[in-house]
Amino acid sequence: xxxxxxxxxxxxxxxxxxxxxxxxxxxxxxxxxxxxxxxxxxxxxxxxxxxxxxxxxxxxxxxxxxxxxxxxxxxxxxxxxxxxxxxxxxxxxxxxxxxxxxxxxxxxxxxxxxxxxxxxxxxxxxxxxxxxxxxxxxxxxxxxxxxxxxxxxxxxxxxxxxxxxxxxxxxxxxxxxxxxxxxxxxxxxxxxxxxxxxxxxxxxxxxxxxxxxxxxxxxxxxxxxx
Amino acid sequence: xxxxxxxxxxxxxxxxxxxxxxxxxxxxxxxxxxxxxxxxxxxxxxxxxxxxxxxxxxxxxxxxxxxxxxxxxxxxxxxxxxxxxxxxxxxxxxxxxxxxxxxxxxxxxxxxxxxxxxxxxxxxxxxxxxxxxxxxxxxxxxxxxxxxxxxxxxxxxxxxxxxxxxxxxxxxxxxxxxxxxxxxxxxxxxxxxxxxx
Lengths: 226, 197
Hints:
The complex is a heterodimer of chains A (about 230) and B (about 200).
Chain A: H1 3-13, H2 15-25, E1 53-54, E2 63-69, H3 74-92, E3 97-103, H4 111-122, H5 126-138, H6 148-159, H7 164-172, H8 177-190, E4 198-203, E5 206-212, H9 217-224
Parallel strand pairs in A: 2-3
Antiparallel strand pairs in A: 1-3, 2-4, 4-5
Chain B: H1 10-24, H2 27-47, H3 50-58, H4 64-72, H5 84-110, H6 119-131, H7 135-138, H8 140-148, H9 163-184, E1 188-189, E2 192-193
Antiparallel strand pairs in B: 1-2
Helix pairs in contact in B: 1-5, 1-9, 2-5, 3-4, 5-6, 5-9, 6-9
C-alpha cells in the first residue's frame, strides 16, 4: 500500500474518531507550528556539511531530516532498517529529501566508543560510515564496551580497504571527541535530551517539527507533506 | 493484615474476571471501557512526542486527515514506534485502564459508594505513561521525571530496559481492579451475584 493510499484509508477509518478528536486537536490554521528556525541557524545545522548525508545538499533540499542516532539504541536500529530505508529508496532517490545523520551516544555505554569509531571512519570514507552504522544496528546484541572496538577493527578489516587499526586507534584516543561533543551540545540545545532516535524535520530549509523514536514512513512523509 | 487486601488466591483472580465480565456485559459500560482505553492509548502515545503533537497535531496548518494520520501512526502495531513487546505491554495497560475505570464508574454510580481502590487506577495510569515505549531509548515523560532526581541513566540498569514500569502498571491496575471488585462482593450486577464459589 502506498503512503498516500494508507493515509486515505486511515483518514476514512478515522472519520468517527475525528468527531471526538477534532475538539481536542484543533482543525484550523490557528495552531502554533514550530518556530520558523532556518536549518542554517539551527544548532544541528552548524557545520552540518561535515557529517554524512543521503540525497541532495541538506541546505538546498525540498525537505531535510537531521537524525541523531546512538549505535546502541534498538529503536534507532528499527528506524534505519525500516523507515530510513524506505525513505531512501523513494524520496531520497527522487531528490526530494536529504537525510543527515550525526552519531549521538546517550544510551548504552558501548554506543560511545562506537560513535568515536563512526566519526573516525567517516573522516576517511563516507560510504564506510553508512556500512559500519548498518553493521552496528544489525549486530547490536553482540556488542559491549569490552569488545566493540575489537569487533569494529575486525569488521573494518574484512569489509573495507581502510586502515582499520588506525581508525580504532583514533576511536580509543577519542581523536574526534570535538565532533561528538559538538553533536551532544547541539542535540541538547535543540531539545533532544537523552532520547534517540531524535529526528529534526525541515521543509524548504525551515524547521517544521521534531520526532522522538522510530517514526513510521507515513508519519514522516505526512509531517513533511511529501 | 495487608495480605487480606492482596489477591493471593485463585478465587481472587476469578472474582476480578467475573466482576469485569458482568460489568462489561452492560453495553454502556463496555462502550465506556473502550473509549477510556482508546483515550488512554492516545494520551500515552502522544506523550512520547510532545513537540510533534504541539507543532503539527494540535497546532500547525495540516488538514484534519493528516493530523489523524499522525495520531494513528503513534499507536503500537500501526506505527513503528514500539517493538512488538513494548506495543503489547502498552495495549495490555490501556485495556486494563479501560476495564478498571468502567468498574470504578459502575461502583460509584450503581452502588453509590466511594471510590475506594481507585487510587491504584491512578498509580496504574501514571506508571503506564512512564513505561510506554522503549524507556531505555528515551521516554520523554520518564526521562523528565528521572532527571528531576539526577537519575536519568537509572533506567539503563533495568534488565528489561524500562519494560518493568509497564509491568508494574499492570500489577497496580490489577490490584486496583481487585480492590474495587472486592468492595462489590456480595452485591449483584443485572441480577447476577458477585461471588465466586
